[in-house]
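REVIEWER CHECKLIST
Item 1: Sequence provided? yes
Item 2: Single chain? yes
Item 3: Sequence as submitted:
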Amino acid sequence: MKLGIVGSGVIVQEFLTITHHLKETELTAICYTERSRETGRELADRYHIKQEFTDYEEFLNSGADTVYVALPNHLHFSFAKKALEAGKHVIVEKPFTPTYKEAVLLSELAREKGLFLLEAITTLHFPNYKKIKEMLPALGDIKIVQCNYSQYSRRYDSFKKGQVLPAFDPCCCGGALMDINIYNIHYVVGLFGRPKRVEYFPNVEKGIDTSGILELDYGTFQCICVGAKDCKAPIANNIQGDKGCLYQDTPVNVCKSFQVFLNDGTSSFVNENSYEHRMVDEFIEFESMISRKDLETCYQLLDHTLTVCEVQNIARNKAGIVFPANA
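Item 4: Structure as written out by the authors:
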């Protein structure tokens, strides 16, 4: 694919370090703001990106066939929509869109035009995650699922002092649910599908959730997803069944090794990931999918993304957290 990148922030800088793994990808263009010109130029020079733009319309007229939208959350929808309208395949950083309605609109547009539309969510693409799916039946009937991703954010210190950065800004569609708990939602929905009932109990400051507990009722079992940016605790993911449990002590967005403990006293340690960097597997799969013109797999992933967007939308609405896109 001929990839054009929109953005020059931390996630773009992280992505560029793994592009040597992408054998069928050409970095053709980067688009950045005037304010980020120095950083953008440095990235273009370091990674041999041929074209640089500060105007998005001009960028869309460049030779890129695929656009990677790696901007603050509130810009995902508008930038992805323009790229699809211009006939470009689109990869959107997580979280996909602030609202479910926006996600549906993008999905319909991509399918209508026969274009790829993918959410860059690392969790789904790890060999370890696929192995967890495979090993679930050994746990028997699932009873309890718990995911805790709590990571104290330095931005929270600024937030308490009155400096509201995008990660905690309702106008930028930030908050713990969108930024950190979204990984847990992807993890659980990817394993078990759409829940029957969604509840969200957040700690809210200045109109945004700085941490919260998401309850997902699957009818035959219950799930708790904890996401926190205002406090921290040891990372723990547990899937408990009547024949055993699965335990993982890394965040689901890196999905490293896990252990399975069965009731008969046997246990196993599993680690099938090949790459140290969390973004390699997802982009290798995106590259392959687009190269093979595998729209079927793309749209299956898109259906999953829509379910996740629906869950987070219900959760946020029930908690009374309002984004501009809700207006």
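Item 5: Key structural point noted by reviewer: The chain has a mean pLDDT of 96.
Item 6: Recommendation: ____
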